[in-house]
């Protein structure tokens, strides 16, 4: 049934129908919240009773929604309408590859360009364990600006991640209906193993890719018979005609790549889409080099050929990239050509974020995790190696000095700097709950601090001074992501007041005398070459900006898409230099899975489906977990039924809710919210009935809550001008909160012992986060429990053990005696976890018997999405 224009589906208004197919109808619609046009695919109600069709539609949504890559269609939202599910995605303008080819061969250069984009997209999907299985020209879309997008993961199979040793039933995601003997896909582009009804892995997509590339280069299908049976027979038994017979100008090395993709035996094809991308990248730069590579490998056995091809082609690709960069910086100033390349993640690293380009546009710094430690890496563009900076463990939000000699960063509640060439880090000042920094040519550093404002400090160190305070009229709670403009006197910053629709980008002066609204927008901002850059969701926009008059001069337009955006902190992963270099990152932090482990680290069971979960706490009866869920750009509290594995949304406000905890009787859930322009501690019945009750409000309530076992007190954190303090709220009498620990250091994550007479907490007084124990209320004694750093303290139900998370993400246990005095044993490691951020609160929970641990585990430990570099990005504005 066709939906008429003007129909509302939630926040989306249908504008017109733009297509239909076997999997549903597609409409153009308007998103009133994000102020953008979108595409909505709706499965007709008549088909919603078809379980197979419905399962395929839901699988398409869940699969594609878990990907975030420039060459894969973006999924914004998933919902239902009158029982019919629908998917909201980005609206694409352009045509399919089938329409672009029109039955004729494409120019070789254009075919290589499209092939490389397909390979990049497939590589991103395969690295997340997703196989498309229905790759064909109809499922490849070319936008008006020449970007290629992979569509329709409705037939995707969720396979194991890694080396392929994991069986399908072991993958912690919903199982796909891909039983042996069932043929799925499109005849003509299907691999031999698919036609035989065998389980298909990522190499089946490589076969389909080969068939598509053959067609782009020749203008004819690789396998086509007079009947379906003839086509199947051709795929199983015959090779397509030689490309050189139909196109005399075909690059011989490119033809060998096609043939390598179309091997009947999966073992003989490229081992991965990443290897395939490297091979095509090498061809795009130097066909002769690729041909020489093939000559060198031709005398080797097949297995050795496969092992060496990735290494040789990787070296060719990196060398070509280095030459491109060198040529760019030696080019005449009149050169206006746009050059793009990617920077791969350092070997063995994961969780890459926050790329920032140097002021001269010659290097990029970024955060990556290796061996459990998050550090700053620096990659000069004329080098093939990214260098890890020693002394930057657990660093946050790096930023460059104007001369490119130093990097500023935050660690353990401190602002620090380090020389890019190496050397020890230097502490400049206290900086709790930092929200970004910037450095001008006069040696002034600005940094934001959550719930406090923006501060300045000399680059040599000193006492920070307030530049901007929170604007009470706007109900501001955070001023973040300051960026100096070229004059060094004015700076951009983002203002957050609890609502994305009313958050804004401002410009202000260093002396605090000027503060001017530029636009309503919820992201960080930057300036380059006469333009203000900012993000709308995953699209980076540019808008003309006069830095002398401090005013916008034109309409906004997109300059980069599929850049990863983190809604909870209003941050888009892009950066620009003064001379027109842009870096961005399109990957995303891995989804998490709740997993039960025993004390040895043996996996016992999964709980529910993967999700964007953060804080997670068990109810006293262990039947429910309260957790923070950040899906679809929201931050809400959900309740997970641990028996059935079913999550249920618990809060529904426009603000951000997090840091849940349970009352001692399990009848209430405490949490924090900034819904009303301030951060408050709230209570709500666990049944969801009734209204939320505000218990305490403050300029700086944060860092989690914990209720004492006797039900008399709640721990919470406050962040004054210096450090972070632990407070308690009595749940009796006048209920007036008061501080328990106040100092120049940060004390966070307080947790009561089972007898409510002691409490464990995290403090950075030693220079790094460690676990301490004191009496409650404090009576003078204090014991340091951890020895090499730690966070997330938890007590066993019987009070005989204390647990915490080490910086290497190992779960630690310490025997304790809670008699008249505190006694403890030596910390021992129980098992290695895969929690995201060891220092964040509530990433694991302990069962009442102390024999099981529910861990919020990253299911995609390695995220290999590269950093994209664009040299002379402003040249694209002339097109």
Tell me the layout of helices and strands:
Blueprint: E1 8-9, E2 12-21, E3 24-31, E4 36-42, H1 51-65, E5 75-81, E6 84-90, E7 94-96, H2 97-101, H3 108-127, E8 130-131, E9 140-143, E10 148-150, E11 157-158, H4 192-195, H5 202-218, H6 228-237, H7 243-246, H8 252-261, H9 273-285, H10 287-298, H11 302-329, E12 339-343, E13 350-357, E14 363-370, E15 373-380, E16 387-388, E17 396-400, E18 406-411, E19 414-419, E20 426-430, E21 434-439, E22 444-449, E23 453-458, E24 465-469, E25 478-484, E26 490-496, E27 504-509, E28 515-520, E29 525-528, E30 531-536, E31 539-546, E32 551-552, E33 557-560, E34 565-566, E35 571-572, E36 574-576, E37 581-585, E38 592-598, E39 603-611, E40 613-618, E41 624-629, E42 636-641, E43 646-649, E44 657-662, E45 668-673, E46 679-685, E47 693-698, E48 701-707, E49 713-718, E50 725-730, E51 738-741, E52 747-752, E53 758-763, E54 770-775, E55 782-784, E56 791-795, E57 801-805, E58 810-818, E59 822-824, E60 828-832, E61 844-846, E62 852-858, E63 867-871
Antiparallel strand pairs: 1-2, 2-3, 3-4, 4-6, 5-6, 7-9, 8-11, 9-10, 12-63, 13-14, 14-15, 15-16, 17-18, 18-19, 19-20, 21-22, 22-23, 23-24, 25-26, 26-27, 27-28, 29-30, 30-31, 31-32, 31-33, 34-35, 36-37, 37-63, 38-39, 38-62, 40-41, 41-42, 42-43, 44-45, 45-46, 46-47, 48-49, 49-50, 50-51, 52-53, ...
Helix pairs in contact: 3-5, 3-9, 5-8, 8-10, 9-10, 9-11, 10-11
